[in-house]
Design a protein that fits this description.
- The complex is a heterodimer of chains A (183) and B (267).
- By secondary structure, chain A is mainly alpha-helical.
- Chain A has helices at 2-29, 43-49, 59-62, 66-73, 82-86, 108-118, 137-141, 161-169, 176-179, and strands spanning 93-94, 97-98.
- Chain A has a domain at 2-49.
- Chain A has a two-stranded antiparallel sheet.
- Chain A starts with a helix and ends with a helix.
- Chain B is an alpha+beta fold.
- Chain B has seven helices and 13 strands.
- In chain B, the strands form five sheets. Chain B has a four-stranded mixed β-sheet with strand order 11-3-13-12.
- The chains are: A mainly alpha (183), B alpha+beta (267).
- Chains A and B meet through helix 2 and helix 6 of A and strand 2, helix 2, strand 6, strand 7 and helix 5 of B.
Chain lengths: 183, 267
Amino acid sequence: MQSYNTHVKRIVLLLAIMALVGYGAKKVLTPSTFGEYGHYRGAAIEKEANRPLKHMTNYSCKSCHAFEWEIHEYGKHKTISCEFCHGPYANHVKDGKYVGRLPVKKGLEIKTLCIRCHNKEIKARPKDVIKTIKMPDHLKSQHVREDHICNQCHHVHAPLRYINRAKKVLGLLTGKEAGNEGR
Amino acid sequence: MKDVKAAINKDRREFVKKVLRGSIAGSLFLVLPMGGEGSIQIPEQIPGIRGKEYDMSKQRFAFIVDITRCIGCGSCCVADKREYDVPDGHYRTWVERYIKDFDDNVYVDCPNGGLDGYQKPRTDIPGKIRDTFFVPKLCNMCERPSCVQVCPVGATFKTPDGFVLIDKDYCVGCAYCIQACPYSARFLNPKTKTADKCTWCYHRVRKGLLPVCVHVCPAKARKFGDLNDPESEVSKILASPEVITVLKPDMGNHPALYYKGLRREVV
């Protein structure tokens, strides 16, 4: 009788061992936070959320560059991020310490940068969003030399700053615009 | 001694007021510890994230791209590449230029993903141009994402707050999701050898900051906000009678990325 049941016992034992090994392997191999919110690792959300910031805001530049910030904040270019032209904050300051110099555009680089947005040749630019000009027609109509670079008339951080100031001196600026110091 | 106590008692109300005001003001600033050198504070860009427990299941965000305002400067693409060190030739977000002529031919180009901006007009179009516009593209953060459905290892997923993210540690780089995405938002990152895509700057949103492309957009063509807040800009736009559409609605993915003023030619 004993030998008659042996193979059944063996199979049951084998299945039990396999189930146990399978369960153990699943326990060991499944990441601990898997299934916390769904069929994925819950810890991956926190990992993505804790990715270090590279860009800050214009406000973060203020503590050191208050003078430039003031000009920029009240000028026509206030919607442009400092970091677009100058590079990300993380390349400049890390853990409160200076780590690298950010580029300052000079000469023809400035012209390229201005034309990137203000080129009238690209037709898709809505008039109520951006003022566009055609080069060198703009220089001709303003009666300046054609090799002039934009920042010889326009302050890069507040493009109408000098122009409005000059107009104010000449008495060309009236009403509300005259009040805000030609920003 | 009695005088001191009396003085404190007298000013107690004032003192409590000051403390409360200080703690409320403090909670609106993101304080980043800066290794003993003090800290810098950044004002909150998305109201209602900081200063309380972030409950993932209760958040609803929307992204709106305003086609009628995009000037094609490519600031968004530049900022995105810098924020994530995206390898050359791959784009988490890009800006396409659509040109339509009077014979209803549509010409689309996207030199270097819009990273260099659009410096020159197209000269190879024979017909008379009727309309030109820019279309920024990014991850659509679908309500029913097809990329999540096909992932064999559970490495791409939709979070309870509606973001579709990638678990880079468990992605095997099989690229099924890249084929599944109807919007071509995904690519295989040659550096990490895993799938990669736009995350709507999840790490910034959780800190109360706008996605970096929204923050740098000078024309305010990209808008991001909280749909639970009826006062947020996105809530107001979605409730307004503006023309608001999503890309490829027939795919049934139900994107959370909306386009304002989108032409029917855009795919």
